[in-house]
Design goal:
Blueprint (H helix, E strand, L loop, with lengths): L6 H6 L2 H11 L5 H6 L5 H13 L3 E2 L7 E2 L1 H22 L1 H6 L7 H4 L9 E4 L7 H12 L2 E6 L4 H6 L4 E8 H10 L11 E4 L4 E5 L3 E4 L11 E5 L2 H17 L5 H6 L1
Parallel strand pairs: 4-5, 5-6
Antiparallel strand pairs: 1-2, 3-9, 4-7, 7-8, 8-9
Helix pairs in contact: 2-4, 2-5
Length: 259
């Protein structure tokens, strides 16, 4: 059994190695420039560069300049993802401890670092509708909306009336209930609607991602909403919508209304 730490762990365990590798990735390509940053002693910088070179993460095509190898570039990407994930957790560890990320498809759990920079909006005793109100505000201001709908909220549906709704993936039970309760003019079943077994609510507008994960016992949580405005988060959300949309089915409106 190999008890030695992995390559990435070995780098992260050393502040000097991590700093040197990331600095080289950012264009600081000489030993002297690394020393001039005063992040460590001269000997520590030399030792870090020697270690990175011996592990073939950097090379010196000239006698005075360092460059990353392909492996070094991969490691830098992994370190960056690691730091983004830490940032996501540290921003609101209580939320991620109490909500079920396994409701997300595995490939999207691996990309949760894309959500770094987002925030959790919570209901409070004095503002029990705070999370719903914030989602409502975002929907009212949106021009374009795509979403999954594991539960139906009339208030939020009304807020999205003026937006261009490009696609909706309903939970099948929710879709059937909505069809029973709404007039045909209120819910036009077109090519923009599909049904699937969705347990999370994800909404993507032109400027934000809105995400609602179930709690650990599987309960839908209307008291919190994760909101992110970065391009990375919106791209993550659109990819997730693609996943659900491609695995969903077009609803049979006539049979649904007869039930």
């Amino acid at each position: 059994m190999n008890d030695h730490p992995s390559l990435i762990v070995s780098i992260l365990q050393s502040h000097v190695r991590t700093t040197a590798l990331l600095a080289l990735a950012d264009g600081c390509d000489s030993t002297q420039s690394l020393i001039d940053q005063n992040t460590a002693s001269k000997s520590a910088v030399y030792n870090a560069l020697t270690w990175l070179h011996e592990h073939e993460l950097i090379y010196n095509p000239s006698s005075k300049r360092w460059s990353l190898t392909g492996a070094g570039q991969i490691v830098v990407n992994e370190i960056d993802q690691h730091r983004q994930t830490e940032s996501l957790l540290e921003a609101d560890i209580d939320y991620w401890q109490s909500h079920d990320v396994t409701a997300l498809p595995p490939r999207f759990r691996l990309r949760l670092s894309d959500l770094a920079g987002g925030e959790v909006v919570r209901a409070t005793e004095t503002r029990p509708a705070r999370a719903v109100s914030e989602v409502e505000r975002r929907l009212k201001n949106a021009d374009v909306i795509g979403a999954t709908v594991p539960v139906y909220n009339d208030r939020l549906a009304d807020a999205a009336n003026d937006a261009d709704v490009t696609r909706l993936v309903f939970n099948e039970a929710v879709f059937e209930e909505v069809i029973k309760e709404t007039a045909s003019a209120q819910l036009d079943v077109t090519e923009m609607i599909r049904v699937s077994d969705v347990a999370i609510a994800v909404t993507v507008t032109e400027d934000c991602l809105l995400l609602s994960l179930p709690t650990l016992d599987g309960t839908y949580d209307s008291q919190t909403e994760f909101i992110a405005e970065t391009d990375e988060a919106r791209h993550w959300g659109n990819d997730l919508l693609d996943f659900y949309w491609n695995s969903a089915q077009s609803p049979d409106r006539d049979s649904s209304r007869q039930k």
